[in-house]
Design a protein that fits this description.
mainly alpha, 15 helices, TPR-like_helical_dom_sf, Serine Threonine Protein Phosphatase 5, Tetratricopeptide repeat, 390 residues, misfolded protein binding
Length: 390
């Protein structure tokens, strides 16, 4: 009887799952595509996920691209670019990162060239906006791949992120000045816009170029939903960037505590947006050369330390206001890191009692959520203040 019940339950579950599987993975991804291309893509899917065989999967991915070209699919349609994106994803899945980068760079280059040659004729039909959105997303993903620890090409990562950010901002400014033209479609905004800003900000932070990171964190914060854990993270990151910039009253020396690194790098946003065959449109003219950095940060830098304290306190207040049902570990990390930042700033101003209190608060928060790195960081701060007092 037990065996019968188990088999019946398994069979029932399988019968319920099969229609869902067929609809989600066999039908939906290929709606509107020519059948010869779909046939090759389904084979590639089979050898990539069902019966893993990378060589066979690669073979059918290539055949799908060749078939799309043979039957005359628009090379700049969302469907065709989507096939190329899947090709890049395949390489990344099997750890062939340079090949994935090459595919993405090829897509980006082709999209930019198309806009330079034909973009002015396709403003009102939205094609210019849509194609340059792909270029921006590909550039962002290239930056993420170059930044992986086992590739660690930080200069190339910065170049890719810089191009994406400059393209985003240039098009945003153009629309603000000229106004959005009828039919050209909306530009990249919201979470996707902020994520690109944040990724470049982290690249600058890791190189100690805090004056460039701070305005980017602020840009990301302006499009981040308020009263969220990630907003608290961005506020703390902004406080960190500001606290590392010199002012007239405090100057960090080699004996001062090391800067607190920003927490929670944004996760790769490439897969979700780029897997969509109808993405949010985007555009901006620019060549593939590395753009110049901004001449001056956009934040007023009269007293960066005071601003850092204000942003750290705002990060704590924001993290504490987030409703329980919306709280994530980002809230606790933001609180802990912001408290540590306040302790570090007090320590640099020779206010050791205040610094010790903030470090202890940071340790309590980290211990409460089991964040070992936060506990270690706070204990090191407490130890420094004790050594000064002795």
């Amino acid at each position: 009887m037990t065996v019968f019940v188990v088999l019946f339950s398994f069979s029932s579950g399988l019968l319920l799952y099969l229609p869902f599987y067929y609809d989600q993975y066999i039908v939906k991804p290929y709606i509107g595509m020519p059948e010869p291309v779909v046939k090759e893509l389904r084979k590639a899917f089979h050898y990539e996920y069902v019966q893993p065989d990378p060589k066979q999967a690669l073979k059918y991915h290539k055949r799908a691209l060749m078939m799309a070209q043979e039957i005359g699919m628009d090379p700049f349609s969302d469907m065709t670019i989507g096939i190329k994106i899947r090709y890049a994803e395949f390489f990344e899945k099997f750890y062939h990162y340079q090949q994935a980068i090459d595919v993405l760079e090829s897509i980006r280059g082709d999209c930019v060239k198309w806009v330079q040659l034909f973009g002015d004729k396709h403003v009102e039909d939205g094609k210019r906006t849509r194609i340059l959105a792909w270029a921006v997303r590909c550039s962002t993903k290239v930056g993420e791949l170059y930044g992986l620890p086992w590739i660690d090409e930080s200069e190339k990562a910065e170049d890719a992120f810089s191009w994406a950010v400059e393209t985003l901002l240039k098009e945003k400014r153009r629309r603000e000045v000229e106004g959005e033209k009828q039919g050209e479609g909306e530009w990249i905004a919201g979470e996707e816009f902020g994520g690109t800003m944040e990724r470049l900000a982290h690249e600058y932070e890791e190189k100690g170029q805090h004056a460039y990171a701070a305005p980017l964190f602020l840009q990301a914060l302006t499009v981040c939903p308020t009263n969220t854990c990630h907003a608290a993270i961005l506020m703390n990151n902004l406080a960190t960037s500001l606290s590392q910039q010199p002012n007239q009253t405090t100057t960090r020396t080699q004996s001062d505590p090391a800067p607190t690194k920003p927490v929670q790098r944004p996760s790769g946003g490439f897969m979700k947006p780029l897997n969509k065959l109808n993405p949010q449109p985007g555009s901006s003219d620019s060549s593939l050369k590395r753009p110049d950095r901004p001449a001056e940060p956009s934040l007023p830098m009269v007293d960066p330390v005071t601003q850092a304290i204000q942003w750290a306190n705002m990060a704590i207040a924001t993290a504490e206001r987030v409703p329980a049902e919306d709280r994530t570990e980002e809230c606790d990390q933001a609180r802990c890191a912001a408290l540590y930042n306040l302790g570090e700033l007090a320590e640099r101003s020779k206010k050791n009692d205040e610094a010790a209190r903030q470090y202890e608060k940071a340790r309590d928060v980290a211990e409460g959520v089991g964040w070992d790195e936060g506990v270690k960081m706070a204990n090191e701060g407490i130890k420094r203040t004790q050594q000064v007092a002795a």
